[in-house]
Design a protein that fits this description.
A: alpha/beta; FAD/NAD(P)-binding domain; five-stranded parallel beta sheet; about 35% helix; B: alpha/beta; D-Amino Acid Oxidase, Chain A, domain 2; 2 domains; globular; binds flavin-adenine dinucleotide; oxidoreductase activity (chain B); FAD/NAD-bd_sf (chain B); FAD-binding oxidoreductase (chain B); oxidoreductase (chain B); FAD-dep_OxRdtase (chain B)
């Protein structure tokens, strides 16, 4: 195996781990990189302790498989595992001919540690599996203490067993709200209600007439049923077509205003209701982490019709992106949960390693990947973000929390003839320029500006100046000046650990 | 000049400054841009307005004129209306002053001599003792060998400044058309009489090429090519910090620097903080066409330079980097004036790393030239008809030194 292909896998979540596994099986040499200390990604990172207690059956069903895969991959003689290694930049070889980028890493510690070393990694193929993070739309009061993103609330509840509140409302859209509510209950919070913004008609249309055809493939049916039963046991109301449109309180959230929504998410007049709470958890779907795919030059695919805004990485049947040698898998190609991410990862890893396209096991993997894709599409259609949500905003509602930019300032900037180009409004309103670099508000601000401006104001992109997009972050992870100033070294495989 | 139609090609800060002057002079002005206003180079650089980096000569004179004009112009923009006042505020004018620091013996000597020459030309340049330097910039390196304070150095937020100039032009009657790419010229009786754009023809008496780093391409489309090409620069932005850098601080390395190949990567560091608390560090210089890739090694070199000035910034995270293309002319002087080959065509560009600072002076000069008025300063060094612009760029290496920074 002297000339084995070298595959770099970025992200060791369900998709990346499975890509590494498949690439090793296909005979490649693999370097698996994750900024976290442990593989597992969003999904497995929080499983063990929290789930062990309440759900032994799920633990036995899911966790051992993960454990096995993890051990097999990390202990494999052809695998180099690089934990605590953040990819801060991808450097494409040249505009022409395109190929896999040089991977620039910061190795040896968490982001707030000091003195991480700069390394470079050149591989024959790169699999991007960097996942997504949860999205939250702004509404008046969303910046009050006591308002959590659903993901953060779940992490607190599951990871640290924090009781986020004694009167909690969970609101937003998507099946993800259910496990969040479940985790809150398990950690000891009292959940008053779970509000799903999608109405029954939208849900029915999205899932289609025979949703059960899809569900078994993705292993979701039992899971969701379990959550519903759990909510019922705790007498948590689950309401459709209603959401939180405002949070109020002195210094922290004390009450929320909920309202019935039309399918476009405009508020039904007279339907507002005030609910005293001490915490509220909101989630409006997921934003894929597109900075690395964009840095590699990957073409994105458009929005799913009626689906959430924002695009995903375009991939073909082998999970190839538009850039030769670059593959994508997991939530950056569509949101469908961990099993779908695993299936995609396997196909990507096999193809990246140059594995036999006619191999038998690949057929089953493709099938389950296709089921995952179909699931993603239905999920997006059943839980669209209605365009009229901006009707909840007031002039003084903050849209960019890092910089404190409010909706009024955004409206003023966009409608100013001389300064309405996206790049210019960004510089004048500062929306998206703060420490999170638009990871939270980027898609929201892009959506609002596009709507306020009517037509795309920027015309053709300028030669050499990439269009201002909500996901373009060539510096994908913050890097300290001292780390940047130090020279970088090629990754030396012998130094890295084989766990 | 009532009834004279002028079309400004390009809505960057140079186009905005020219449009404003021409509109205020009563011309009927249209600004065309293929993209959005102020969104190209002008929104991809920094906003240093420097006298400190310029040795005696034509560019320094243009810089001094511009430095005088900036506060006046912004005050007039603000006086026009409430919207004008908002626009002027968004320019974020800040006359914070610059400090140039040498860190080697030869550097100190060169800087001292350079400052003396500048003083001779009317620039304020005050030598700082070690103690004065530390009280002005407490976090600067203890390893300094000389430092000068330039109280006239200032900064703006460049895209906001350009938008303010453009808004004033519009208020004075100019028209802005974005998404109008200019494809070719319409020449009648030897004169540029119109341009063809993706959206139709536009006829006028005066055309101003203000296409920034694309001025070379655009002029070629119009049949009168000039030697303006892109020179890439990258800027680092840190997360917001408590006040750490109080002036524009930069190293004196550039002083007397001559002759290194223009294609090679060159770096220098101008360190400054913005109103939002971030520190901006610029920048590199590279001739690589319109290659949009950020190069980690270029960023690394810029970071190293910055740390030489401010070692205590080593732990500060860079959260963003961006780059743009300076409009580069081999003799490092802008091109301002009529094109002798094609009547009706004027140029206002090629300011390389100083176009933000020099924009208002350039707009004023261009108006005076177009109207045939006496000019505020001698415009012949900027004429179109010179070897670096029309001839073989290899034969037109810089004649002056001390013009290696931008304003970065
Ligand atoms: C809070 C939360 C709860 C969820 N609960 C469920 C559930 O109950 N059931 C279910 O089916 N799904 C659930 N999901 C969805 C599930 O987690 C995802 O479908 C799955 O994790 C996606 O896998 P992935 O490999 O694409 O991405 P991820 O799991 O997100 O993995 C991406 C990995 O890439 C790494 N990474 C990212 N950027 C970089 C970089 N620049 N450098 C180095 N490494 C990087 C990250 O550290 C991470 O380990 C949940 C998601 C979240 C956020
Ligand atoms: C990294 C960096 C740092 C800098 N720092 C400073 C600094 O600190 N201080 C300073 O003074 N300067 C600085 N500069 C330089 C300054 O940014 C430029 O000199 C200035 O912005 C140039 O402005 P412009 O209007 O000529 O060009 P641009 O802003 O590029 O405007 C040209 C316009 O022409 C349009 N155009 C091009 N072709 C066509 C066509 N065919 N049809 C229609 N429209 C067309 C473009 O769309 C564009 O909008 C820096 C530059 C860089 C890259």
């Amino acid at each position: 195996m002297s000339a084995a292909r070298h595959v770099a896998v970025i992200g060791a979540g369900p998709a990346g781990l499975s890509a590494a596994h498949a690439a090793l099986a296909a005979g490649a040499r693999v370097t698996l990189v994750d900024s976290a200390e442990q593989p597992g990604g969003q999904y497995h990172r929080m499983l063990p302790a929290a789930y062990a207690a309440e759900h032994p059956e799920r633990l036995h069903h899911d966790w051992p498989a993960f454990e096995r895969r993890r051990r097999r991959v990390l202990a494999h003689p052809r695998c180099t595992w690089m934990p605590d290694s953040a990819v801060w930049m991808l450097e494409p070889p040249a505009p022409e001919p395109a190929g896999p980028p040089r991977v620039h890493l910061l190795c040896g510690g968490p982001a707030d540690g000091s003195g991480r070393a700069r390394r470079t990694l050149d591989a024959d193929a790169v699999v991007l599996a960097v996942g997504a993070h949860d999205r939250v739309l702004p509404f008046p009061g969303w910046d009050l203490p006591g308002v959590f993103t659903a993901g953060a609330a779940q992490a607190l509840a599951k990871g640290e067993r924090v009781v986020v509140g004694d009167r909690v409302v969970v609101a937003g859209t998507g099946p993800f709200l259910l496990p969040v509510a479940a985790s809150l209950l398990e950690a000891g919070s009292r959940v008053l209600e779970v509000l799903e913004a999608a109405g029954p008609a939208t849900l029915a249309r999205g899932w289609g007439r025979r949703p059960w055809e899809l569900v078994p493939h993705t292993g979701k049916a039992g899971e969701l049923a379990g959550y519903v039963a759990l909510l019922a046991r705790h007498r948590v109301r689950y309401r459709l077509g209603r959401t939180v449109v405002e949070a109020r309180g002195e210094g922290r959230v004390e009450e929320v205003v909920t309202a019935r929504l039309r399918p476009d998410w405009s508020v039904v007049p007279g339907s507002a209701r005030t609910v005293p709470v001490d915490a509220v958890c909101v989630g409006h779907g997921f934003s894929p982490q597109l900075e690395l795919p964009l840095a590699a030059g990957c073409v994105l695919r458009g929005e799913v019709a009626g689906g959430p805004p924002g695009a995903f990485v375009r991939v073909d049947d082998d999970q190839r992106t538009s850039v030769p040698g670059v593959f994508a898998a997991g939530e950056i190609t569509g949101i469908a949960g961990a099993p779908a991410a695993r299936a995609e990862g396997a196909v990507a890893g096999w193809a990246a390693a140059g594995g036999d396209p006619a191999a038998r096991p690949l057929r089953a993997l493709r099938r389950s990947r296709d089921a995952g894709r179909a699931f993603a599409e239905r999920l997006a259609r059943a839980h669209p973000v209605g365009a009229a949500w901006s009707g909840w905003l007031r002039a003084e509602t903050v849209v960019c929390r890092c910089e404190g930019t409010d909706y009024g300032a955004l409206c003023a900037a966009v409608t100013d003839r001389a300064g309405s180009a996206a790049r210019v409004t960004k510089l004048t309103t500062r929306a998206g320029l703060g420490p999170c670099q638009g990871r939270v508000c980027g898609p929201t601000v892009a959506e609002l500006t596009a709507r306020l401006a009517g037509a795309p104001p920027d015309g053709e992109p300028h030669e050499g100046l990439p269009p201002a997009g909500p996901h373009r972050r060539p510096v994908a992870q913050p890097i300290r000046l001292g780390e940047l100033a130090a020279p970088s070294a090629p990754t030396d495989e012998r130094e890295s650990s084989h766990e | 000049m009532n009834g004279t139609r002028a079309v400004v090609l390009g809505a960057g800060i140079l186009g905005a400054a020219c449009a404003r002057e021409l509109a205020l002079a009563g011309l009927e002005v249209t600004v065309l841009d293929r993209g959005g206003a102020a969104a190209a180079t002008t929104a991809h650089g920094e906003g240093n307005i420097l006298l400190s980096d310029k040795g005696p000569g034509a560019e320094l004179e243009l810089a001094r004129l511009s430095r005088r004009l900036w506060p006046e112009v912004l005050a007039r923009v603000a006086d026009r209306s409430a919207a004008g006042a908002r626009a002027a505020r968004a320019a974020e004018w800040d006359a914070k002053g610059g400090i140039v620091v040498a860190t080697t013996r030869p550097g100190a000597e060169a800087l001292t001599a350079f400052a003396a020459a500048q003083r001779g030309a009317g620039v304020r340049a005050d030598a700082l003792t070690g103690r004065e330097l530390l009280s002005a910039e407490p976090f600067v390196t203890p390893d300094h060998t000389a430092a000068f304070h330039y109280p006239e150095d200032a900064q703006v937020q460049p895209a906001g400044a350009a938008a303010a100039l453009l808004a004033d032009a519009l208020a004075a009657g100019a028209t802005l058309r974005t998404g109008w790419e200019v494809l070719s010229g319409i020449v009648r009786r030897g004169r540029l009489a119109g341009v063809r754009t993706v959206r139709g023809e536009v006829m006028a008496d005066v055309f101003v090429n203000a296409a920034g780093p694309w001025a070379g391409t655009l002029s070629a489309r119009l049949g009168a090519p000039i030697g303006v090409s892109p020179r890439r620069g990258d800027v680092l932005v840190t997360t917001p910090l408590p006040p750490t850098v109080f002036h524009k601080v930069y190293d004196a390395d550039y002083v007397g620097a001559v002759g290194s190949s223009e294609e090679e990567l060159q770096t220098s560091a101008v360190v400054e903080s913005t109103r939002a608390g971030s520190v901006l560090i610029g920048s590199s210089r590279r001739r690589a066409g319109f290659d949009d890739r950020l190069r980690p090694e270029a960023l690394s070199a810029v970071a190293a330079k910055a740390l030489r000035l401010f070692p205590s910034l080593a732990g500060v995270p860079v959260m963003r980097a961006y780059g743009g293309f300076r409009p580069y002319v081999p003799d490092h002087l802008p091109v301002i004036g009529a094109d002798p080959r094609l009547p009706g065509l004027w140029h206002a560009g090629g300011h390389e790393g100083a176009g933000i600072g020099l924009s208002v002076g350039t707009g004023r000069l261009l108006r005076e030239l177009v109207l045939g008025e006496p000019t505020a300063l001698d415009a012949t060094p900027f004429r179109v008809d010179r070897p670096a612009v029309l001839g073989d760029p290899e034969e037109s290496r810089p004649a002056t030194t001390g013009r290696q920074k931008e304003g970065a």
